[in-house]
Design brief:
By secondary structure, the chain is an alpha/beta fold. The chain has a single domain, classed as Rossmann fold, CATH 3.40.50.360. The chain contains five helices and five strands. Strands 1, 2, 3, 4 and 5 form a five-stranded mixed beta sheet that branches. The protein is elongated and about 50 Å long.
């Protein structure tokens, strides 16, 4: 998890004290023209895993890089909060420099999902 120490912003991301797969993920991002970022909605917000991703790459908010790349956000939700989560994801992707593609909000219900929700989800993805 990101510690919020701000070393990546002040001294460069290569000075980050956390040694994990961030650089491998970064290389994958740089090699692609477009990316899809997806998260379930928990308590009106993206998942902790997705939040940590944005925190670990937060230095791009100070040095936007991805102006030649496209990004799309997808959120899945079984109740409320999808709009807030989608706005947050799009805000972060925009700050990193991505060109945004229309986001996608999909609704799922625990157990047997109503047919109308299945149809709406299918219509959104076409």
């Amino acid at each position: 998890m990101c510690r919020g120490c701000y070393v990546c912003v002040k001294r460069g991301e290569d000075k980050c004290p956390i040694k994990d797969e961030r650089d491998l993920i970064n290389n994958e991002i740089l090699e692609n023209d477009g990316l899809v970022f997806a998260s379930p909605v928990y308590s009106h917000m993206i998942s902790a895993t997705m939040k940590n991703f944005f925190d670990r790459f937060g230095f791009y908010g100070h040095r936007p890089t991805f102006f030649d790349k496209y990004a799309m956000s997808i959120v899945t939700c079984s109740g409320y909060g999808a709009e807030e989560a989608m706005k947050y994801m799009d805000k972060m992707l925009s700050v990193f420099g991505f060109n945004l593609v229309s986001p996608l909000e999909l609704h799922f219900r625990p157990g047997k999902m109503p047919e109308k929700n299945k149809i709406q989800n299918q219509e959104k993805t076409v």
